[in-house]
């Protein structure tokens, strides 16, 4: 273990990092080998500090030097390569200069996701990896206790989501509501009110949400475009909107979530 210099891009020891631009061979793709891939020193540092068991790193020497403190005492292979060799392995030039791969631990149960404080985000049909990563970054920044994924959501541990979240998807607790929308009843039993975000008339303005839901809140968001399904809206306790001028009826999902997270943080 420890530092291993790699000069041959065909070395099988770095196969977990190979051909990341080839969709059907990626090790982080759903249904694939289930690896988590972190890019860049900031995200790799967060991976090293997470519950995800790191089993290898690949990068240029300068980036390993920047992570020397975090890697001290780690019994994992650190494959050092030139930028050219690394690009041959990965399939493209990686400006961030370092990658780490980790195995996925067992998913968290709903009780573990909601065990902290603050609101939780519940998502339905959020299939865009970048939107999902941005939402996790906002959740980490604005005090959200966890994220629960309903049907139709993309994989939050896909490389693009991890990168866009700046590694916060590795820190914010998340899990899955496999019973949909019945799982919302479990949240109610744990003391949550379920607030569904929708621009439809008659919904409660966001700044008035605390008047009808003073306790912990589960904030229910749908995909851009179609929004929440009628099934999800019917299962919520409250319909909530972010007031906007006439002619503007929607926001990017990560932006809408950030506004909601911030407003609740100010209200508490």
TrEMBL record:
Organism: Amycolatopsis balhimycina DSM 5908
Pfam families from the UniProt entry: SpoU_methylase (PF00588)
MF (Gene Ontology): RNA binding; RNA methyltransferase activity
Signal peptide: none
Example of a GO biological process term: methylation
Sorted UniProt keywords: Methyltransferase, Transferase
Protein name: RNA methyltransferase
Organismal lineage: Bacteria, Bacillati, Actinomycetota, Actinomycetes, Pseudonocardiales
Gene3D superfamilies to which the protein is assigned, alphabetical: 3.30.1330.30, 3.40.1280.10
Cross-referenced CDD domains: SpoU-like_rRNA-MTase
């Amino acid at each position: 273990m420890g530092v291993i210099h790699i000069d041959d891009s065909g070395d099988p020891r770095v196969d977990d990092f190979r051909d990341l631009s080839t969709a059907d061979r990626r090790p982080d793709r759903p249904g694939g080998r289930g690896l988590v891939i972190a890019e860049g020193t900031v995200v790799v540092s967060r991976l090293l500090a997470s519950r995800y068991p790191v089993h290898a790193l690949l990068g240029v020497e300068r980036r390993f030097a920047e992570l020397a403190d975090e890697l001290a005492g780690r019994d994992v292979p650190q494959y050092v390569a030139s930028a050219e060799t690394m690009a041959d392995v990965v399939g493209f030039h990686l400006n961030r200069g370092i990658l780490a791969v980790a195995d996925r631990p067992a998913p968290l149960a709903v009780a573990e996701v909601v065990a902290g404080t603050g609101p939780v985000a519940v998502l339905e049909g959020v299939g865009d990896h970048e939107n999902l990563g941005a939402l996790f970054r906002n959740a980490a920044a604005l005090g959200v206790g966890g994220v629960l994924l309903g049907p139709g959501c993309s994989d939050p541990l896909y490389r693009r989501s991890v990168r866009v979240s700046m590694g916060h998807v590795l820190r914010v607790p998340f899990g899955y509501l496999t019973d949909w929308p019945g799982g919302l009843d479990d949240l109610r039993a744990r003391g949550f009110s379920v607030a569904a975000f929708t621009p439809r008339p008659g919904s409660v303005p966001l700044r008035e949400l605390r008047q009808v839901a003073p306790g912990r809140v589960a904030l229910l968001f749908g995909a851009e475009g179609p929004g929440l399904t009628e099934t999800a809206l019917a299962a919520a306790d409250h319909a909530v909107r972010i007031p906007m001028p006439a002619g503007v009826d929607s926001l990017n999902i990560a932006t809408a979530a950030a506004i909601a997270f911030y407003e609740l943080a100010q209200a508490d």
